[in-house]
Design brief:
four-stranded parallel beta sheet, Rossmann fold, alpha/beta, about 15% strand, about 250 residues
Length: about 250
Amino acid sequence: MNDTTKPRYILGTVTPVGAKLHPLPQPQPLLPPDILRISSSIEVSDYTRDGVHEAIDQRYWNCIDELAKQGANSITIAGFPIASQLGRKRVLELLDETARKTGAVADAHAEATVAAFQHFGAKRIAVASRWSDPLNKLVTDYLTQAGIEVLTITGVGQWAKQAFSMSIEEGVKLAFQLGREAMRKAPRADALFLAGGAWRSLAAVPILEEDFGIPVVTNPITQPWRLMAAGIAPPVEGWGRLLAGK
């Protein structure tokens, strides 16, 4: 889309950190050029309880105001660690209030991920996670509250600093390693969740799906999938079942 073309849809995202520290997690052109992506960051200091609650309490509504002023048609809270530290009840309350205040569709990566598993009828999943054990417990709690059973969850002890310092190559390699580890531990899982966006795990999705014969979901791709499911954007082939609309 050039500068003189009016976007057909404006997709707003509240990100954990700004683009200077961490660019948008999926550089692939998953959405058509007439859908404009905009973002505003809560600049979370870490994925700890204090770090997340401070960022939400102090900066969330400023981000919402900024995105609304730019005409966002939908606003999504990015980051599964953010949602997990807040808890599902608080996330749903934030989404309700955001929709009321802005008139935009309010969503979260966490809720879109839950919807993706429901789309596939997946009730028992394996989770490939890089995060620390305390954060993994909160991720598991969130999914459990949404009616999804976590059969296994991996971990390598990451918090925000470690997550955002990974190179693309390190992240993709880790996505394959932990995805396969999770499936070895839970071979009867209905689906595999590559949790998080910082490791750029999209490239692993179609290969792991072929390896294990089940859907593979990573939370950043659930945001464009929501637009595809609503008929706002077309499906995209080559990046797995979810984005292909299968």
